[in-house]
TrEMBL record:
Domain of life: Bacteria
Organism for this UniProt entry: Rhodocytophaga rosea
Full protein name: Transposase IS200-like domain-containing protein
A GO term, aspect molecular function: transposase activity
Every Transposase IS200-like domain range: 11-51
BP-aspect Gene Ontology terms: DNA transposition
Alphabetized InterPro entries for the sequence: Transposase_17, Transposase_17_sf
Length: 52
């Protein structure tokens, strides 16, 4: 029960798996762009209290 989140009327444990696949399996997010996307995803998750 430790990993469950609680609200006043519910108890939940949401799990999402995000996959991004390109047609030819090329790395398109590289360098500075990849770092910025990673930073944005982490900040959004922190804002909504999502555990990665």
């Amino acid at each position: 029960m430790q990993n469950y989140r609680k609200t006043s009327h519910s108890l939940y444990d949401c799990k999402y798996h995000i996959v991004r696949i390109t047609k030819y399996w090329k790395k398109i997010l590289t360098g500075i762009v990849a770092e910025r996307v990673r930073e944005l995803i982490r900040s959004i998750c922190k804002q909504y209290e999502v555990v990665l």
